[in-house]
Amino acid sequence: MTPALLLAHGAGGTVRANFSPLIPRLSRKRKVHAVDFPGSGTTPRATGPLDLDDLADRLVATAEGEERFAVVGYSMGCAVAVRAAQRYPERVTALVLTAGFARIDDETRERMRQWRRLVDGDRAELARFLLSIALGEPFLRRMTAEQTDGFLELIALTIPAGTPEQVDLVQRIDLRDELPSLSVPTLVIGAKHDRLIAPGTTRQLADLIPGARWAELDSGHSPAVEAPTEWVRLIEEFLDALPTGG
Fold first, then answer.
1. Does some domain include residue 115?
2. Model pTM score
3. DSSP 149
4. How far apart are CA 57 and CA 60, in angstroms?
5. Among candidates 59, 87, 63, 57, which has minimal Cα distance to 74?
6. Where are its TM segments located (predicted)?
7. Tens of pLDDT along 51-109?
8. Which alpha helices (DSSP H) does the chain contain, by range?
9. Rounded Cα gap, residues 136 and 196, in angstroms
10. Residue 166 falls within a domain, yes or no?
11. What is the bridge-based pairing of β-strands 186-191 and 4-8?
12. Nearest to residue 175, comparing CAs of 215, 200, 207, 223?
């Protein structure tokens, strides 16, 4: 039986925002489960700092009734996926980590601080900042003025209430010591034009995981928008090639 699939979204995102174009195709072969982390979607906002172990437990709890499952993590969700594999090694069959990091570099840290400062300010200014880091430059250049305005409006209207806590967690994550002990089959996917998490940072994540495979998307930090077909192809080909089908 093909294992189920869990989806772990990124900071300032939701399952729908980060994965919706992929879910119909991924659901053809596997049961897909996901949860919005505190402050995203309809999940209540946390009353204190987020904890990576808690997010991993929340994610795994969505797979109630599933004996085994693979996990697809995106951005911050990569750290959640890794922690789920560490806490539930008998259940996690594989990891696919996209645009992730073991620890953010100084440039990304400064962008995170700017993101945090803007959250409490003008939504239009925040939307312009997020658009500049979320989409790769080649994709941005191809957008019309009307498309750009539409994206900005959508971003301003859909900023999760829990963004401050999620951005704070990103700045605290450091997986460098635990990744070398990870033994689950793993595919790490970088984004060639990522302006939030540099491709080199994602490559460092791959280098720390024994036996990890590497692939790269021709996109920025938003593969669900820029390269959904290629992204889902990489995920499915990797999972289908495993002895258990994922």
1. no
2. 0.96
3. H
4. 5
5. 59
6. none
7. 999 999 999 999 988 999 999 999 999 999 999 999 999 999 999 999 999 999 999 99
8. 15-19, 23-26, 52-61, 76-87, 106-119, 123-134, 137-142, 145-157, 163-172, 199-208, 223-226, 228-241
9. 10
10. yes
11. unpaired
12. 207
